C-alpha cells in the first residue's frame, strides 16, 4: 500500500483539533516533502523521522515521499507529529499493517535513536480524544498526565520499536495510570497568624464565600499583602472538572506538575508587567497571568503603579470569565475565571489617613494618584476595604482569631448553598439571574434605590452590592435582609 492515513491532534489554545497525517509513496527520485502549513519544528521532523527509522532497524523507502498534514489551513507546530509521520511511512511501505493504526490517535516527538520524547499540551489532546471516544498512544513521559482523563484508554511507549511491536501484536503496552497525585495542602499563611485586622478578615471570608473581587487600601506595612495571600487557604479544593481545566493550562505553558493537582493558583505579577503578560498574546497566542490564575486568585499589589492601559484589559475577563485573543494569523480563547485581589496605598507617600505618620502629599498629587484607576474598573470590584496600621501595642499581643480551616468550613457550606440555588457562585450571577432568584421586597428596593442615589452607584455596582449581600445571607444561613444590604453597602464607602 502506497498511501497511509494516521490520526493525530494539533494544539490551538486549549483546543486540540484533529489532524490527519496523510503519507504517500510514489515512484521517482527520492524526496521527502512535507506540506500542510508546517512551521520550522515540524519541517525538521523529516530529518528526525529518517534517522529514527534507520537507527531502529526499519527500511526507509528510497521513493518520493509526500506527507500532508490536513486540514491544510490549520497551523502546525512542535515535534508532536514525528510519531504519526513515522508510522505513516511504515504503513505506506507495508512494514506495519494499516488496520492496526485505525483505532488510535498518535502524538509524540522522536529522538534520532527512535526514543519517544514528551510534548507539551497532552492534557487538552487527551480531553479532545476522550470526547470523540477514541484511544491515544503517546510517549511514556506523558502517560501520567493523559491518564488523568479517566474515561480515555491511553497506551504509552518509550521507543518507536515498542509502538511497532504493539501494532504487530508482538509487544504488550499496558494501560497508562495517573500515578500518585499530591494531596491538596495549603502552604500559605494562616488567618490565625494575623494580628488584629478583624474587618479585613471578614472581607476575605465574604470574598471567598461568594467568589467576589476585593481591594485593600491602606498605608505600607498594614498587612495588605499578607492578608491577600491568605485567600487561597479559605477556598475549597478544586473539583475534578476544575482541576482538569487548571492542569490543561499548565500543560500548554510550564508543563503539568502532579504536585499542584487540585491546588488553586495564586498569581502575583509585578506592576511593570505589560498587557500581553497579563492577558496573553504573541504571534501564536499564549495564556497570560489571568488565565494562569483561572479558578484561583490574581493578586495585583501596588495597583495604581500598573499602567492604566494594562489594567483596562481586565475589564472584559472580569465580566465574562474568559479572554479572546486575536492576532493576524491566529485566534485563541482561554478561560480566565479568577478572583481579583488588589492592594494600593492611599497616596504616593502611602500615609494618608495614617494616625502614626503624617502624609506629605499635596491634594493634587493624591488626586492624580487615585485617578490612575478608572471608574469602570473599580465598579467591577465588589469589596473595598480600608486596612489601617496596627497600633504599636497591638504588635506584641498574641494573635487571636479563627484559623483558615475554621473559616474555610463556613465558606464551603455557603458555596454549596449557592450551587444548589443557582448552580454557580453569587459573583457569577447575571443581572437577570440575580433579579429572578432574589426577589426584593419594597423595603429593600427602596433602600437600594436610595443608596444608588446617595453613593452615585451605577446599575452594575448596585447589582454587585446585592450579590455581596446575598453572600452575607448565605454565610449566616439566613434569608436576605436589611442588615445584609447595609453591610454590603459599607464595602463601597471610599470610592
TrEMBL record:
It comes from Marinospirillum celere. This is Magnesium chelatase family protein. One of its GO terms (molecular function) is ATP binding. Transmembrane segments: none annotated. InterPro entries: AAA+_ATPase, CHLI-like, Mg_chelat-rel, Mg_chelat-rel_C, Mg_chelatse_chII-like_cat_dom, P-loop_NTPase, Ribosomal_Su5_D2-typ_SF, Ribsml_uS5_D2-typ_fold_subgr. It comes from the Bacteria. Residues 210-391 form the AAA+ ATPase domain. SMART domains: AAA. Belongs to the Mg-chelatase subunits D/I family. ComM subfamily.
